[in-house]
Write a sequence for this structure.
């Protein structure tokens, strides 16, 4: 029986080429939606897909697909991830999933394997959370009815979300209903770096993901009153940052009280941001994550209550907006067992572990069986320039992905 063989150097060359597209004067590797670097990177990717013999297209949400037809009239198998990054990110988060899927498609073709299903390599638009406060933008619009037309008026640096999506080739006015229905995709696979320390700590090089956490996230705006920090008595202050500090600590305290859950405030802006002036305006982004959605919703309710109390005690107005809620998901048993078996053929120590990060697979799981494969992150590092995975582990992960695609096709 024919089996795909990965061209590791071709994969590494593609990863290096895509890494050249980064926003100037930013740390690490930075391709944020809707930057010019991100747009040019996707143009490069589209050309690379076409060189591999894939027919490319953008859907109304701006997701980029490269397709090879199958031998039968069957729903396609999708494999992919995203190519946008956080500010100062690394080379592999998301990118490995897209370029790995492209290499898997090439390896399957090079081996002379004709799949029954069409195979689609997917690059989903804007997976990372941006200042538009929407994560997994492309996969959310593709697979759910949660996209709201009023979001299109949101502005970041004077650019509306509508214009940003148009610049990426999307047709945002057509969104609001799912672009795909259950049954239209046979399965979805996403290869990803772990973004954590478990694989490295346990001496494993592969994992089949057993579930993806749910996420609650929002921008929190607090408005107080600027005044002289030395001349204003404590009982007459309306300190927005003091209220924000209580909220930040509460996120940590609430998450610590729920084993397996996490919480963070990773973004904070304040004005006037001057040493001797009481802060008048603070905007922060708070998020919480858990596999247990009931626990996550209870945590979020606790945070809302505490935020209201902290603000009221200081005479500060509070506004939660751009809230998002992403359900936790688990792969169907048959697909998880198939992927785990493939991983253990390549590494007998392969694990089954949950993902603490959100992924496009969370939305794809709403319309098709979806599963993920992890490879190690050295030192557990991700979302940082130090993000690194050994080239042998990258190639092993892509080989497992290719074998999983073939196994699903033959199932």
């Amino acid at each position: 029986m024919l089996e795909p063989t990965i061209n590791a150097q071709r994969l590494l060359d593609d990863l290096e080429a895509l890494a050249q597209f980064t926003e100037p004067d930013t740390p690490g590797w930075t391709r944020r939606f809707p930057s010019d670097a991100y747009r040019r990177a996707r143009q490069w990717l589209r050309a690379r897909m076409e060189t591999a013999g894939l027919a490319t297209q953008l859907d109304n949400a701006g997701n980029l697909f490269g397709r090879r037809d199958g031998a039968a009239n069957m729903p396609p198998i999708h494999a992919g991830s995203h190519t946008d990054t956080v500010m100062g990110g690394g080379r592999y988060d998301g990118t490995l999933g897209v370029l790995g899927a492209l290499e898997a498609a090439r390896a399957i073709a090079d081996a002379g394997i004709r799949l029954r299903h069409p195979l689609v390599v997917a690059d989903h638009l804007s997976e990372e959370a941006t200042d538009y406060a929407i994560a997994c933008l492309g996969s959310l619009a593709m697979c759910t009815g949660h996209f709201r037309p009023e979001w299109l008026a949101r502005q970041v640096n004077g650019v509306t979300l509508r214009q940003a999506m148009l610049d990426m080739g999307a047709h945002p006015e057509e969104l609001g209903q799912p672009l795909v229905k259950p049954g239209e995709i046979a399965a979805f696979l996403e290869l990803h770096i772990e973004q954590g320390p478990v694989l490295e700590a346990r001496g494993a090089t592969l994992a089949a993901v057993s579930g993806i956490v749910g996420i609650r996230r929002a921008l929190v705006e607090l408005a107080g009153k600027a005044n002289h920090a030395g001349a204003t008595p404590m009982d007459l202050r309306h300190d927005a940052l003091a209220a924000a500090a209580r909220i930040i600590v509460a996120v940590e305290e609430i998450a610590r009280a729920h084993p397996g859950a996490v919480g963070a405030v990773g973004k904070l802006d304040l004005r006037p941001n001057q040493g001797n002036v009481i802060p008048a305006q603070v905007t922060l982004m708070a998020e919480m994550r858990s596999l247990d959605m009931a626990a996550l919703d209870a945590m979020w309710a606790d945070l809302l209550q505490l935020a209201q109390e902290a603000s009221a005690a200081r005479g500060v107005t509070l506004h939660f907006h751009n809230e998002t809620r992403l359900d936790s998901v688990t792969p169907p048993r048959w697909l998880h067992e198939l992927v785990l078996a493939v991983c253990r053929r390549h590494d007998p120590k392969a694990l089954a572990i949950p993902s603490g990060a959100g992924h496009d697979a969370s939305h794809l799981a709403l319309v098709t069986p979806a599963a993920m494969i992890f490879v190690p992150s050295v030192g557990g590092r991700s979302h940082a320039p130090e993000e690194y995975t050994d080239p042998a582990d990258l190639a092993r992960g892509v080989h497992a992905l290719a074998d999983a695609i073939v196994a699903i096709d033959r199932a």
